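Hi C.,

You asked whether I'd gotten around to modeling the 209-residue construct. I have! Everything is below, sequence then structure, no commentary in between.
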Amino acid sequence: MLKANIFVAVLIMVFLMPAFAQQSASSDQEIPSTTSATEASSKKAATVDPNYVIGPQDMLDINVWKEPGVSRTVPVRPDGKISLPLLDDVQAAGLTPMQLSDSLTEKLKKFIAQPEVTVIVTQINSERVYVIGSVARPGAYPLTPGMTILQALSSAGGFTQFANEKKIFLLRTVGGKQAKYFFNYKDVINGKHPDQNLKIDAGDTIVVP
């Protein structure tokens, strides 16, 4: 009887092991794909606008195909230049990623046969917005693509105890003059006046009284 029980147990293990192995393999494959999608989304967020003009303090990913010694992630210095092997200082500020890619390609032709260069803006630090007044963390914040007043307020950590959430306003320079746009936080989060939740431009200031 004991031998029969052992034989049955062995048979059960033989049939179940492939199923466990398949389930384990499936689980192992899901994690990398999720991480990869998150990383891709994060990288895409900084380069959504092909006409974006690079500025000081931006972070750039310079990739020269099959040339890891030249490829690297570099910051744009306050003088608007970046430093790369072989080329030393190169002007980056004032150019779009494609224009900088073309410039680097031409310069690298002196050292590399048929260089292929891609430029990705991984962090936009040159364009900033300002949140001041009765918020937890007043100050300057990097402008992210599509950023709205509501998102900027969230970046500033929300309101202090005595903030007047109904009389927030945004200041923007339009045609050399300062324009003022009112924002009622209570109304917007309750679905009223969604048009008040404006998309922010670089240099805008949000005031929370």
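If it helps when you're writing up: Residues 2-12, 14-45 have pLDDT under 50 and may be disordered.

Thanks,
B.
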